[in-house]
TrEMBL record:
Coiled-coil zones: none
PANTHER family per record: INNER MEMBRANE PROTEIN DEDA-RELATED (PTHR30353), TRANSMEMBRANE PROTEIN (PTHR30353:SF0)
Membrane topology annotation: Multi-pass membrane protein
Source organism: Streptomyces sp. R35
UniProt KW keywords: Cell membrane, Membrane, Transmembrane, Transmembrane helix
Record-given protein name: DedA family protein
One Gene Ontology cellular component: plasma membrane
Transmembrane regions listed in the UniProt entry: 12-28, 59-81, 144-166, 172-195
Cellular localization per UniProt: Cell membrane
Pfam families cross-referenced by the UniProt entry: VTT_dom
Domain VTT: 42-164
Stored InterPro entries: DedA-like (IPR032818), VTT_dom (IPR032816)
Entry's family note: Belongs to the DedA family.
């Protein structure tokens, strides 16, 4: 598997590719940022076991790169939504999902609870909804940023760990990447389910 993408995973450009993909997927959730992070981590596992000879990303640097890009993407979306004006407000008002997320997020953040931000980082398009909702609601950055940092770090550690340990156990193959990405999708499905549960919403409000 990694021979076909060795030119990327075997060069410093992998960090730039990961950073750009993770940063932009807050606006384009279809970008395969999770796949790219997992593939790079699988390459690192292949190097550790001797299955891959070329230089590959450092695990710590890869984690920090993905986490930092995640937070920066959140902040860009947050600031754009903050300055979005009436057009964005009308767009959010027309979306029941965005309106609901905005209301729940505002209550959770104002009361010091940010579990919703962490869960949203794993849920499909959840990161976009929460970041835009926080900005459009003009939540204070000190309420949103710490939870964004925690969410980005947890997501990055989880994604890199999936790729690395999947590569250790299954080898540097497409199977390892596929299984690891399946585990990431499973976490996203679980996060989406938890975000919709009334009990979780109430606990976030009371946090």
């Amino acid at each position: 598997m990694l021979e076909s993408v060795g030119s990327l995973t075997g060069s410093p450009w992998i960090y730039a590719a990961v950073a750009v993909s993770v940063l932009l997927d807050v606006f384009l959730p279809v970008l395969p940022s999770g796949v790219l992070v997992i593939t790079a981590a699988t390459a690192a596992a292949g190097s550790a076991t001797g299955a891959v000879e070329h230089a590959v990303p450092d695990i710590l640097m890869l984690t920090l790169c993905a986490a930092t890009a995640s937070v920066l993407g959140d902040l860009v979306a947050y600031r754009l939504a903050w300055r979005g004006g009436e057009r964005l407000d009308r767009a959010i008002a027309r979306s029941r999902r965005l309106t609901s997320a905005q209301e729940r997020l505002g209550v959770a953040l104002s009361r010091g609870g940010g579990a919703l931000v962490v869960l949203a980082r794993f849920a499909p398009a959840g990161r976009s909804v929460v970041s835009l909702g926080a900005g459009a609601a003009h939540r204070r950055v000190r309420e949103f940023l710490p939870w964004s940092i925690l969410a980005g770090l947890i997501w990055a550690v989880y994604s890199v760990a999936l790729g690395y340990f999947g590569g250790q156990w299954l080898g540097a193959t497409w199977l390892a990447t596929g299984v690891s990405f399946g585990a990431l999708l499973a976490a996203g499905t679980g996060a989406a389910f938890l975000m919709r549960r009334p009990a979780v919403q109430e606990s976030a409000k009371q946090a």
